[in-house]
Design goal:
Rossmann fold, four-stranded parallel sheet, two-stranded parallel ribbon, binds zinc ion
Length: about 325
Amino acid sequence: MKKNLFLFLLGLLLFSPLASCKKNNEIQNYINKNNQPINNDELIKKDKKLLLVSFTILKDIVKNIVGEEFLVESITKPGMEVHGYQITPSDLVRGSNAIIFIENGFGFELWAEKYVSNLNVKRITLSDNLEPLFINEDIYKGKPNPHAWISPKRGILYVDILMEALSELDPENKAKFKKNAQIYKNKIKKIDEDFSLFLNTLQKSKKYLVSCEGAFSYLTKDYGLTEAYLWPVNAESQITPKRMARVIDLVKTKEIPAIFCESTVSSESQLSVAKETGAVFGGNLYVDSLSDKNGPAETYLDMLSHNLDTIKNGFNSSREN
Ligand SMILES: [Zn+2]
């Protein structure tokens, strides 16, 4: 009996300081520098390292690989035009808190070079490991087309490249990142297969994708479509009478059933082409940015599905005359 009492007292002596120490730490954690209690979300945010990316599509892909291990933020917001974005002072503050800056490259982020030169941050450029397709028009002639993520087949490459780079950054989580990446790639693969199956049912003469920006080169190349557009890159999105006439001529000659535009630019010119040619305006595709929560392209997978479904519906529609 005495022995048990001794052990009990010994236990109290040994464990209570630890217990109260742990409790103090917990309390301390919930109080920030200004002695104000902070909520759980802020606590999580505070503990995690920041991965900064250039645009929302990349943010979603990175998030699917790292899960909850890092905080992932995008410089540009949903719905924004990315090419000609103007950096703000708060972007510089965020950049100074980040452990890495991840960008697409291929000249997509016209602002990135200057931005990174003001920061002391590690940089991952996806295009370093991607095969480019080149733009063959205007001032962009000979430059790589940046929009590789538009093709699900290249999206799978994005996941692989990012998985490797992020595993190097955080080797302890390599197995987790690899598993997440595989699950995610399977979902992209499903979208890729469904679209290929649909295209197999279509005659070659029907396979024209007409858009506002020439952002679909990777998609058209990977899936055997022919591409036409009103302007090569959004940063120079002026419509000229010559370009307009060329697209109108093609749509009429090939009796293309539907034409499309993109979410971050005005559809006005393309609506005029539709009116002029009797083609149906098939809707807006998402290219440079995801939509906000209420839109159809909140995630990269949603964006791919929305784009490919919109294209399918357009290809299946009947011309108005
Ligand atoms: Zn673009």
